[in-house]
Amino acid sequence: AVVSTQSGHYGRDLKEVWPNVVSCLKEYGIHALLDLIEGSMTVKTTRKTWDPYIIIKARDLIKLLARSVPFEQAKRVLGDEMTCDIIKIGNITRNKERFVKRRQRLIGPNGNTLKALELLTECYIKVQGSTVATLGPYKGIKQIRKVVIDTMNNIHPIYNIKILMTKRELMKDESLKFESWDRFLPQFKKKNVQTKKPKKQTVKKKYTPFPPPQQPSKIDLQLESGEYFLKEREKKQQKNDDKIAKQNEKLAEKKRKREEVFVAPTEDIIRTSASDQAQ
Question: CA 105, CA 90: separation in Å to the nearest integer?
């Protein structure tokens, strides 16, 4: 028996599809169970199971269903030339913002990058959370794993898509069947473009052969103010007095700002001259 866990938000959709899963696996002699309380799916062999490898295929089926892959796509894994791969991408980059940006780069605008990869590799790709579920032929699965790992390592997927497109055209030429394709494949050099930071302008000080004067220590300052000779009780009293004085200053400043609103603005009184009055 093989058990696979599934997420809670997908349980309702999975419950609707589960009769189709049971009937599909019954043809191969596999018994399937769904437990929505524990959130698990189980597949078991029966006495009618005739294919020894079908239990591994059934395990892959419930793994894909647990990652929200539609049943119509997931049941293709039961075929002989089909396999699946769950690529974990969560532990490649530690920075969450960088991880989200690179995962979005893999999906592309409106999912165009994934569609291009699906057409070139003849595989189905589902990106969800920190995993990428792929389903298709063995060769395509290998190519997709390389593209996904390179993308999460900050290599844009368009480079790998160009290489795959070039290989697809070269496969049509029978004369190049036993030759190396390296001279036809595009070579991309990594360009690390760094932004130029403005240089800090430092003002040179005038040179003096004498060292700067020594700053007075805390004890020297206390000796000058006479605080050094005060008792502990007197020091606390002086500290409290200074604190109260600062509070009073702040209160007076706040009061002055509040009263400024109520002060009437000065009006300019225009006085006419005697000549103006005569006119």
Answer: 15
In terms of Cα–Cα distance, which of 4, 170, 149 is closest to 89?
Answer: 149
Residue with the bigger pLDDT between 171 and 276: it is 171
Which token pair is 215?
């700053």
Tokens encoding 136: 């298709």
User: Which DSSP symbol is given to 43?
Assistant: E
* Token pair 């760094």 in the structure block, residue: 194
The Cα–Cα gap between 176 and 159 comes to: 22
Percent of the chain with pLDDT over 90: 26
pLDDT at residue 251, rounded to an integer: 93
Q: Which residues contact 121 (CB under 8 A, 6 or more apart)?
A: 136, 139, 140, 141, 143, 144, 164
Exposure b/e, 173-185, CB count within 10 A at least 16 = b: eeeeeeeeeeeee
Crossing angle (nearest 10°) for helices 138-152 and 96-107: 140
3-state secondary structure of 58: helix
Q: What is the mean pLDDT of residues 206-226?
A: 85
How many Cβ atoms are within 10 Å of 126's Cβ, its own excluded? Answer: 18
249 DSSP assignment: H
Amino acid identity of 12? R
Task: Find the mean pLDDT for residues 230-258.
Answer: 89
* pTM of the model as a whole: 0.61
Tell me the average pLDDT of the chain: 84
Sign of CA dihedral 38, 41, 45, 46: positive
